[in-house]
Structure formats: C-alpha cells, structure tokens
Write a structure and sequence with these properties.
This protein is α/β, with parallel strands linked by helices and 335 residues long. It folds into two domains: 260 residues, Ribonuclease Z/Hydroxyacylglutathione hydrolase-like (Metallo-beta-lactamase, Chain A, 4-Layer Sandwich); 67 residues, no CATH class. It is built from eleven helices and 18 strands. The strands form four sheets. The chain has an eight-stranded mixed sheet with strand order 1-2-3-4-5-6-7-8, with helices on one face. The protein is globular, with a radius of gyration of 22 Å. The chain binds zinc ion. The site of zinc ion has 5 residues, from helix 2.
C-alpha cells in the first residue's frame, strides 16, 4: 500500500514522496527542493527516481546527502543518460577529507538509463564519494527495479533532453480478513507484516508464522503458530495492487504521447506536470512542456482514476485554479 504526495506546492519544485506503508521505507520521484520533507521522512528513502537534471528537479540532491551523511544507509538512484556524471560533479564540489573516520558508511548506488542499456556506479562516503565499481547492464520492459512487493518501470520522454517518466506498481495487495482474524481471537499486529512478506516471497505453505500479541491486562506476550498455507487460505484475500505514475517534463508529441499513455495506463494516481494554460500552447511546445488541457486529456485516455497536477509556471501565480479547472475539464471529457 502506497501513500504518495507532492512534496511542495504545485508552483514550487517538483517531487513526490511515496511511503511504503508499514515498512518504514519510502521512495522519491525527483529531487527538487526537499526542505519541506522532515529529516525523519527523508531518512526512510531507499530509492530515488530522477526524471532529468534540470535544476528544479535535482537541487535537493545536496540536501539529501547532507541529511544522510554519517548514517548507515545505502540509497539507490536512477536517472537518464549523463546522470552518473551529474552525481559525480555534485559530490565533487565538496571537500571530503575527514569522512574516512566516520563509523557508519553512507553509500549511493547510481544507475543511468540510455534506451535499454544501464550503467551503474557506487559512491561511498568513507571513500570520499569516488566513482567506483562501474558496471554495465540491461533492462527489459523498462523495469528499473523489481522488488517482491512492487516494481518501478520507466519510459524515456523527449524534453529536448531525455526525461524519464515512471510507474510504481504494487504487484498485488494482500488484504487481511478482519472478521476472520477476530473470530480466531487474535489481535492484528506487526506479525501480519511478516505474513504478508512471506506470501509476497512465495514461501512454502508449511512455513511457520508466529502470531504474537501482548495481553492488555497483565502485559504478558502470547503467541500461536500457524502454517502459512492455512492462513493464506482462510485469512487472506489477494487483490490487484496499486499503481502510481509520475510524468514530469515532456512536450506533447505523438511519440511522447504513446510513451506517456503506456506509463500512465490505468494508474490509480497520476502525477502529471501542467505548467501552461492551453491558450499558451505554442509557448508550452517551445519549452517542451505540456499544457493543463493536454495533461487532463492524457489522464483521461490512460484511464487513470485520479490525477494530481504539479509544475505550474510562475506566470500563473495566484491562478492555479485556472490550470486545475482546465485539466479537470479535459479529464472529464468536456473539451
Ligand atoms: Zn522542470
């Protein structure tokens, strides 16, 4: 289950924070100004997907490194062609002469994507963030990461520079039947997470699951063991997982439209840029951006359930409602 939100106001820098509920883990799409995100939330981030490195999408990188410095943490970053050089240059602009004494190691594992080819390198804090261990790889079907619970796919859009659009797909949802749980006389708790994880990892049905809870009156811990297969049969309902798509900067060309529709198809929630009103269509095209109407009609064609707009041009400061209503009309099929 994902909890996704824009980090900033739609007139400010782009960025979406996605919390993987119950896992104390989070993902980020784009690294604009991150100061609105608490350090506590920032420290949950394990994977970051950067559309491109225009300043408004990447300026938060320094803030991220500063907050995570000295922590025992590895963060994976993905970006378009040239991304390794950009990360290397940002890290290379600081002095790192005392970091070898840090007790904890903070590592960045960075991948750039060009077509189906990838290039990955590591930057370890205790080794002064030197670019190391470079490896080449390939992705298929646009899949950047494949986790037991979710996958992240990309499509490369044209923004005069390559710009990655992303889809985060929960593979399936494991729902607990609360009525059955109640009839078993066992309260919900963190053990359900272990159950869900084992189901996601396809553990054998005879695997023991330990249900445990603390007695509210005497404070004693109770426990019962069940085979995974039994719980899966009577306690669990598996349904379709959630899909979130993120489309940042792109011109509305036929090629881009095909790719944007592929990434947004039937998303539960689409984050899509809408910098200009359609009256400024030629200005939008010149700057390789979408208009609000194009964003709304894209969401409609892709069959998404909800859309959230961002990246409003400062030109419309105080008129965000105009951009919103233009996109809403197109989403509803009214224009
Ligand atoms: Zn931008």
């Amino acid at each position: 289950m994902f909890d996704a939100r824009l980090i900033n106001d739609p007139f400010d820098d782009p960025g979406v924070f996605v919390e993987l509920k119950y896992r104390r883990e989070a993902l980020l799409f784009d690294l604009g100004d991150l100061r609105a995100l608490s350090p506590r939330n920032l420290l949950k981030v394990r994977q970051i997907f950067v559309s491109h490195t225009h300043m408004d999408h990447f300026i938060g990188f320094d803030h991220l490194v500063r907050v995570c410095l000295g922590r025992d943490q590895t963060i994976r970053l993905f970006g378009p062609g040239g991304f390794l050089r950009h990360v290397e240059n940002r890290l290379g602009s600081y002095t790192w002469n005392l970091v070898e004494n840090y007790e904890n190691d903070f590592n960045l594992v960075v991948t750039e994507v060009v077509g189906e080819e990838t290039r990955t390198a590591c930057f370890a804090c205790r080794r002064a963030f030197r670019r190391e261990g470079e490896q080449e790889g390939k992705i298929s079907g646009g899949i950047l990461c494949d986790h037991p619970f979710y996958r992240v796919k990309t499509e490369i859009l044209d923004h005069r520079v390559p710009c990655l659009a992303f889809a985060l797909e929960e593979k399936f949802r494991v729902n607990i039947r609360k009525d059955v749980l109640q009839s078993m006389g066992i309260p919900p708790g963190p053990w359900l997470m272990d159950l869900k994880e084992k189901i996601a990892r396809n553990a054998p049905p005879e695997t023991d699951i330990r249900a445990f809870w603390r007695d509210e009156e005497d404070g004693r811990v109770h426990e019962r063991y069940f085979p995974l297969g039994e719980l899966r049969e009577k306690l669990v309902l598996i349904t379709r997982g959630m899909k979130i798509a993120y489309i940042a900067d792109a011109v509305c060309s036929p090629d881009n439209e095909t790719r944007m529709l592929a990434i947004a198809e039937e998303a539960d929630l689409l984050f899509v840029e809408a910098p200009f009103l359609h009256g400024d269509e030629s200005r939008a095209a010149k700057k390789y951006h979408l208009t609000a109407r194009q964003a709304g009609s894209l969401a409609r064609k892709a069959g998404v359930k909800r859309m959230t707009l961002f990246h409003f041009s400062p030109k419309y400061q105080g008129q965000g409602d105009l951009l919103q209503s233009e996109a809403d009309r197109a989403f509803a099929g009214e224009s």
